[in-house]
Amino acid sequence: MYLGMDIGGTASRWVLVDRDGEVIDRGITDGASGLIYDARSLARFRGAIEAVRDALPGAVSFAEFGITGAGFSRHPQIEEQVSDILGLPRERFSYSSDMGLAWHSAFHGRRGHLVSAGTGSVGMTYDERGERIVVGGRGILVDDAGSGVWIALRALRLLFRRIDEDGGPKEVEILASCVFAAMGGNTHDAMRDYVYGGDRGRIGRLAVAVAEAAREGDEAAQELLREAGRELAHLGRTMLNRCGEAPVAFVGGVLGLDPSIRAEITSVLAGHEVEFPRIDAALHAAMIAKDKDLAPHDTH
């Protein structure tokens, strides 16, 4: 059996296939990150993979992972954790950034620029020399514009500034109601517990509350989502400017928050080929695992 796993900040998806490529099982578990800097991030990473291990019907021959935060270089700690949890020697699994996995899932070898917008945001493409180009994606403290976390933090900043200035969420009452209900309160303590006491995946989920407010007619929420669309389009335009004309594909959960995000992207990039493919990165990873294991003379 061959395991593919797409580990994202908000959720992780996995697929198990047999040697013929037929799906045996699939599932979804908690999000995690390859940014293993402390005990909490380590526990989340281990928890996501342990949940998959516990669901497997038997031993895995080879596994392929796309991991948010893993970047494009080796990470001994990631390798140590995967080996320990799944009982696989290093030559029986491989991994990459979740962005690299998504790019291959979206384009299958053809040329193209990819923007991924989920908990974070990043663009990736290849130039005429075949060199990988990455734009954005520097994390929630630096950039990740247009992402779920970016939408959530922009909304919180707007709400608390309005409360500071006016004594209440004047003219953004709908947004305040949706966001504070999701956050568990509107006090400093509630905000600190939610934002600083959690992780970026939990922060990103507040974007769902912003989208709810937009659907209920909150104009500030609607503008935040349109602005997110413009920021994501900017990543696409940056790659077009640097690497030339090619289809620009947009993937990720943010695109499903509200139709206005896709509409804004399409408007900003009018005249260019824009795609919104539905990719199954976990299945693609499982097929990569199968192919690597069955390829003749493959040294993995």
From TrEMBL:
Segments forming domain ATPase BadF/BadG/BcrA/BcrD type: 3-270
Entry's transmembrane regions: none
UniProt cross-references to InterPro entries, sorted A to Z: ATPase_BadF, ATPase_NBD, Euk-type_GlcNAc_Kinase
Superkingdom, natural source: Bacteria
PANTHER family assigned: N-ACETYL-D-GLUCOSAMINE KINASE
The protein, known as: BadF-type ATPase
